[in-house]
Write a structure and sequence with these properties.
The chain has 288 residues and is α/β, with parallel strands linked by helices. The protein has 2 domains: 3-77 and 175-287, D-Maltodextrin-Binding Protein, domain 2; 81-170, Periplasmic binding protein-like II (D-Maltodextrin-Binding Protein, domain 2), CATH 3.40.190. Helices cover 43% and strands 16% of the residues. The chain is built from 13 helices and 10 strands. The chain has helices at 12-19, 36-45, 57-63, 109-119, 131-140, 152-158, 167-170, 189-206, 210-222, 226-231, 241-254, 269-275, 279-287, and strands at 3-7, 28-32, 50-53, 68-73, 81-84, 98-101, 124-127, 145-148, 162-166, 178-182. Strand 6 (98-101), helix 4 and strand 7 form a beta-alpha-beta unit. Helix 4 (109-119) packs across helix 11 (241-254) and helix 8 (189-206) crosses helix 12. The protein is globular. The two termini are 34 Å apart.
C-alpha cells in the first residue's frame, strides 16, 4: 500500500530522510498543497492518508467528518511571523485591514485572532489558502497582512514587506506542525515504516552541525530562510502536550472550543509501535 502525504513545505525530518536515503523501501507518495482546505478534501475523499499541517486544524476537520488522529510532531515550533505591506508600522495600524488566512476558523488564524483581540483591533479576514498563496496575495496587494513562515516570510521581506511580530517570541508554547493520519491506517505496517524512517532522521539531524544542516536546507530550496527552517527541527517526534494545551486554551478563550480537545485526538500508539517502545517508556517520553 502506498501512503500519500500532503505538506506545505517539507519538514526537516523528511529532508534528512531523503538526503540519507532512509525512505528506501518505504512506499510513500508526496505532494505539496496550497491550503488546508485541499488537505481536508483529500482526507475526506480517501485520496490522502497523511498530512503535515497546523495541529489546530484537527478541531474543525473532525467536526467536518474526517476520522483522523495526530500521530507526531515534525517541527519543534512553527517559525511564523506577522508580515504586512510597507506602510503598516505596527499591529495597531492593521485595524480593519485585509488579513489573509488559510482558514478563518482553524489553524494559525486563531493565533492571529488572539493577537488582534489583545491589541483591541478587528481585521477583515480573507481566505486565500496556504502560505505560498498568502505571500502572493500580500505582494500582489490583494491582502494587507498575513502570517508567513519560511521561506515565504523572508521572500516577502526582501520584496519590501514589513515584519511586525515574531510569533515565537510572543507565544513560546506555540507548537510546530503535526503529522495527521487517517485513523484507518494508524496500525498499518507501512505507517510504522515511515515513522521509523522519520524518527531515525530526527536522530541523525541531532548529530549534524548547524552549518551543515543550514547548507542542506539551502540545497533543498529554502534559500535565505534555511537557518530558520533548520532551527525549527524537532528534537524528537513525540507530540509536546504543552503545545496541545496552548492551542486548546486559545480556542477556549476565543469561544471556538467545541467537541474534543487536542489531547483526545492525539494517538501515541503509531509512534510507539514504530520505535518499538514499551508503553510506559513512550508515555514518559511524551510527558516530559
Amino acid at each position: 500500500m502506498t501512503l500519500r502525504q500532503s505538506h506545505f513545505v517539507e519538514p526537516v525530518p523528511l529532508v534528512i530522510a531523503r538526503e540519507h536515503r532512509l525512505l528506501e523501501g518505504v512506499d510513500m507518495a508526496f505532494e505539496h498543497t496550497r491550503g488546508s482546505a485541499a488537505q481536508l478534501d483529500g482526507l475526506l475523499r480517501g485520496e490522502l492518508d497523511l498530512v503535515v499541517t497546523a495541529m489546530d486544524n484537527l478541531f474543525e476537520w473532525t467536526r467536518a467528518g474526517a476520522d483522523v488522529r495526530l500521530i507526531a510532531q515534525v517541527e519543534r515550533t512553527t517559525p511564523l511571523r506577522l508580515v504586512a505591506r510597507s506602510g503598516f508600522g505596527d499591529i495597531s495600524a492593521l485595524s480593519r485591514c485585509r488579513f489573509a488566512v488559510d482558514s478563518a476558523t482553524s489553524g494559525f488564524s486563531l493565533v492571529a485572532k488572539a493577537i488582534f483581540s489583545e491589541a483591541g483591533i478587528e481585521v477583515m479576514e480573507i481566505e486565500v489558502g496556504g502560505v505560498r498563496a498568502r505571500m502572493e496575495a500580500l505582494l500582489a496587494g490583494s491582502a494587507d497582512a498575513t502570517l508567513l513562515g519560511p521561506p515565504f516570510d523572508v521572500l516577502a521581506e526582501q520584496a519590501g514587506a514589513a515584519v511586525l511580530l515574531d510569533l515565537g517570541d510572543q507565544f513560546p508554547a506555540l507548537p510546530g506542525q503535526g503529522l495527521v493520519s487517517r485513523t484507518e491506517i494508524t496500525k498499518s505496517p507501512e505507517l510504522s515504516d515511515y515513522l521509523r524512517s522519520l524518527a531515525t532522521a530526527t536522530r541523525v539531524a541531532a548529530e549534524i552541525p548547524d552549518t551543515e544542516g543550514v547548507a542542506l536546507m539551502k540545497r533543498s530550496g529554502f534559500g535565505p530562510a534555511a537557518s530558520a527552517h533548520w532551527d525549527a527541527r524537532p528534537g524528537r517526534l513525540d507530540v509536546n502536550p504543552v503545545g496541545l494545551e496552548f492551542l486548546t486554551e486559545i480556542r477556549r478563550d476565543l469561544g471556538f472550543l467545541r467537541g474534543d480537545t487536542l489531547r483526545a485526538l492525539h494517538d501515541t500508539e503509531p509512534l510507539k509501535t514504530a520505535q518499538g517502545l514499551p508503553e510506559s517508556c513512550a508515555t514518559m517520553r511524551t510527558e516530559r
